């Protein structure tokens, strides 16, 4: 008897699920099953970021760089701090500082913490951080 009741309950649940699914529009179904994430391939250009246009150095800094460069975490040169930036610029020059930011150096990972930045975005962020130096 218990088996018959269990089977009947299961059939009832499946029947209700079918009814609910039939009441959904195609748009509701598409929304319900859409992907929740994307795969990022290194070196690929994100189409949505490209469509939005270039970001300013300040926007990039505030979105990705401020976490370390705002307080100087692990020796990161701070925003607009000549004492932090000038020795690096004098020793390496801007191009090598930029290359180090793109490739990663010491505790800084490649491209910093900006997962959707281009090399030009990184350049803009560095130019913003050294403004006035």
From TrEMBL:
Keywords: Electron transport, Heme, Iron, Metal-binding, Signal, Transport
Signal peptide residues on this chain, from the entry's feature table: 1-21
Domain Cytochrome c: 52-133
Xref: Gene3D superfamilies: Cytochrome c-like domain (1.10.760.10)
Gene Ontology terms for molecular function: electron transfer activity; heme binding; iron ion binding
InterPro entries attached to this UniProt entry: Cyt_c-like_dom (IPR009056), Cyt_c-like_dom_sf (IPR036909), Cyt_CIE (IPR002323)
Name of this protein: Cytochrome c
